[in-house]
Amino acid sequence: MPYFLVGSVIVGSFSGETHVFSSPATQLTAYLIALPMAAVTGVFPLVRPLSVAAARALCDVRAGLLADGPARTRQAKVRTAGWFTLHLALGGVVSGLTLALTPYAVAVALSPLFAADWRFRALRLPESLDGPWFLVLAPVAGVAMLVAMAGCVAAAGALLAGRAPALLGPTPEDRLAAAERRAARLAVRNRLARELHDSVGHALSAVTLQAGAARRVLDSDAASDVAFVREALAAIEETTRRTVGELDSVLGLLRQDEDRPGEQDGPEGQSGPAGPCLDALGGLLARCGVPVSYETQGDVGAVGETVSREAFRIVQEGLSNALRHGLAGTPVELRLLVQDEELEILMENALPERPSVVRPGGGRGLRGMAERAVLLGGRTGAGPHEDGVWRLSARLPLTSPGTPGRATTGKRTSGKGER
């Protein structure tokens, strides 16, 4: 009605007619003028949420077929304007039918109850139609008009419901943005899952091994070996204390992602340190539950923070696998090499003759290590070899594009250490 009234004012100012609504031609002209104004209004971004709400409520269109949020792109605005114009155009026709045809059809149906001169004058019918057959057919004609009007309304609703997914549905840009949001959420969940798997999983494996060793000592004849039990309990205490700190760090990341969902810093939106780096490797090796032969080549301290953090997690997961599946009592050989703008991690451990049973739900560690390396532009490889040794290798570039905190190494020195 607002657009139609504006159109009526425009028509009246040019035609000079005092009563615009008295002429069907001027009404049709005002109606046609109203449609372009409705189309221009439909370009505004907030029209799409209102139109989507109307389509869901009035046309019973499933939510998944319609787009959410304001129209931002040109294609979305054009589609929304098309829907808005179609909606108001059909609405104008349906409004005219229900306002004008409903009382007329009722009057035709009830006309046999009134005098002939009144019904022909009120209904504007020629007097030649007067006769007994008119009295019989008039009620049928009135009901037919109402049925035809209901059919037109239903057809208009069906047309709007059919066009709503095409005009109000997501555009390719909307689908791309939704896919990017889903990928970002999935990346955050995967990152948190890797952090929890590597930190908590390793800690639980080490604690289980230390507690089992202490129990066996207490149950054996060597119960007087209090020093070993004390050392095992100290290792359990240190491991759980460190793991609680790492768990707090991961939960802090989760709260940070919830508070600032739109901000991203680094791979997968990492913002700030998400855990220990290579400078904490000494404490890990001392309390990991297996003997480790550790060797470095190059300036490991010059590795950037992000690469150092991911390298620590890869080493931690490799030690967890050696603890679970390696030959008990044999040392793990670990080498870190910084060369050619790349950090290489090499880890070897002997395998038992009978492979250990994989726990239900396990097997995510190798995939997590591979994901960490791929995010930095690197690669990993792991598997058994013919000499009965499990080998894990990872290559992480120090200057991967988009990696914050990266550092290039200059002159390198060599150093060796045994643990």
UniProtKB/TrEMBL annotation:
Annotated Signal transduction histidine kinase subgroup 3 dimerisation and phosphoacceptor domain residues: 189-258
Protein name according to UniProt: histidine kinase
Source organism of the structure: Streptomyces finlayi
Pfam families: HisKA_3
EC number, UniProt record: 2.7.13.3
UniProt-annotated stretches for the region Disordered: 255-276, 395-419
GO cellular component: membrane
Organism taxonomic ancestry: Bacteria, Bacillati, Actinomycetota, Actinomycetes, Kitasatosporales
SUPFAM superfamilies: ATPase domain of HSP90 chaperone/DNA topoisomerase II/histidine kinase
Molecular function as annotated in GO: ATP binding; phosphorelay sensor kinase activity; protein dimerization activity
Top class in the EC scheme: transferase
InterPro entries associated with the record: HATPase_C_sf, Sensor_HK_TwoCompSys, Sig_transdc_His_kin_sub3_dim/P
Reactions catalysed, as given in the entry: ATP + protein L-histidine = ADP + protein N-phospho-L-histidine
Position of the signal peptide: none
Parts forming coiled coils: none
Stretches that traverse the bilayer: 28-47, 81-114, 134-161
